[in-house]
Amino acid sequence: MDKAALPNKPYFRIGEVAELLGVETHVLRYWEAEFPQLSPTRAPSGQRLYRRPDVEKLVLVRRLLHQEGYTIAGARRRLEEMEQAPAAPPQAGPPPVAPAPPADQGRLFPPPAPDPAQAPPRQVVAEVVAELKDLLRRLS
Question: Which of 53, 58, 73, 140 is deepest in the core (most CB within 10 A)?
Fold first, then answer.
């Protein structure tokens, strides 16, 4: 789910948000309890009404938990870090590269596999393999 793919409406009901994110409504209620940044407004009937920024945060929470492998605590810290980072004014040129999260802090699963196009040259790999074989021979 991409932020741009969200319907252009001011408020979303919990069922709509759950369907957009592909999660159950009880998961959204749980995330509200775990992430203080999530606070939907309530209709006079008591039903939760999520604003677009709330849904965008939920998209981010889902990505951190389901795709990047963060734990709840790690995702909470990452979300806090992202909110504390000052918003830089738009710059001309290519978009800045997002900084990597702290070294696997709060991750439940390993990070996604690196891009094969950025793999080290064969010569470097061959040298590392030779060093490992030499070490293994010494230990045997």
Answer: 58
Mean pLDDT, all residues of the chain: 81
The tokens for 10 are: 């001011």
Question: Taking each helix axis from N to C terminus, what angle separates 52-62 and 14-21, rounded to the nearest 10 degrees?
Answer: 40
Q: What CA–CA distance (Å, rounded) separates 67 from 78?
A: 14
Summarised one tens digit per residue, pLDDT across range 43-98 is: 899 899 999 999 999 999 999 999 998 999 999 999 888 888 766 555 566 666 66
Report how far apart, in Å, the C-alpha atoms of 32 and of each of 13, 55, 95, 136 are.
Answer: 14, 12, 31, 51
What backbone torsions phi and psi does residue 90 show, to the nearest 5 degrees?
Answer: -60, 140
Mean predicted confidence (pLDDT) in 130-135? 86
Distance (Å, whole) CA 124 – CA 140: 25
Q: Provide the sign of the torsion angle of the four alpha carbons 81, 82, 88, 92, taken in this order.
A: positive
Any residues with CB less than 8 A from the CB of 43 and at least 6 apart, and which?
Answer: 49
Q: Is the pTM of this model over 0.90?
A: no
